[in-house]
Amino acid sequence: MAGMTSGIGLRPMTGADVAPVIALERGLFPKDAWTEAMLRGEMAEASRHYVVAQEGEGGAIVGYAGLRAVPPQGDVQTIAVAESHWRRGIGSTLLTELINEAGKRGVTDLFLEVRSDNPRAQELYRHFGFTEIGIRRRYYQDADAIVMRRSATVAERAAGGLSASANGTRADTRAATSPDLSTATGADATVTENEEKTR
């Protein structure tokens, strides 16, 4: 699992993390926050991979992210960083972890939704090789969602799946992070209405 400097590291999310993660969730996404039951349901699925960014051992949870992997497709379910820790590369590191885990699980096409009014998050995703493939109108209560996809290169496909180190993408501490790095459950290739939408 990818690590971070400045006393912050990544580790798998556990049941004990649900309360602090939901507290962050409600602060960052007051209109579209997941419930504790939703998060626990996600964590219980074998196809999911959830991580937290934590200050030191036993310190505060300052970020979290989740992946749905059903090869050959995957979805960035959510990714968020506490406002007090923006611009430290945490969002990039969380996304790197999800992309690499997706590759380990055989994912060759990774999808996400991002708010149409959040250009900083869109820039971060483009930095990691995601491209816009459609729009979901009124996906969020007060904004459309831009659907983005990151497809494996020929070399990545030969190696078995995606990798954040391919195509020059990497965890970059200069990349902007914002509370709207969170994305709801992923899109399908035809950008039809997602029946699994949880936000």
Automatic annotation (TrEMBL):
N-acetyltransferase domain mapped to chain residues: 8-153
Region (Disordered): 158-199
Gene Ontology MF terms: N-acetyltransferase activity
Domain of life: Bacteria
Keywords: Acyltransferase, Cytoplasm, Transferase
Chain ranges passing through the membrane: none
Polar residues composition-biased segments: 164-185
InterPro entries in the record: AcTrfase_RimI/Ard1, Acyl_CoA_acyltransferase, GNAT_dom, YpeA/RimI_acetyltransf
SUPFAM superfamilies, per database record: Acyl-CoA N-acyltransferases (Nat) (SSF55729)
Pfam family for this entry, one: Acetyltransf_1
Segment forming the signal sequence: none
Family of the protein in this entry: Belongs to the acetyltransferase family. RimI subfamily.
The protein, known as: Ribosomal-protein-alanine N-acetyltransferase
Name of encoding gene: rimI
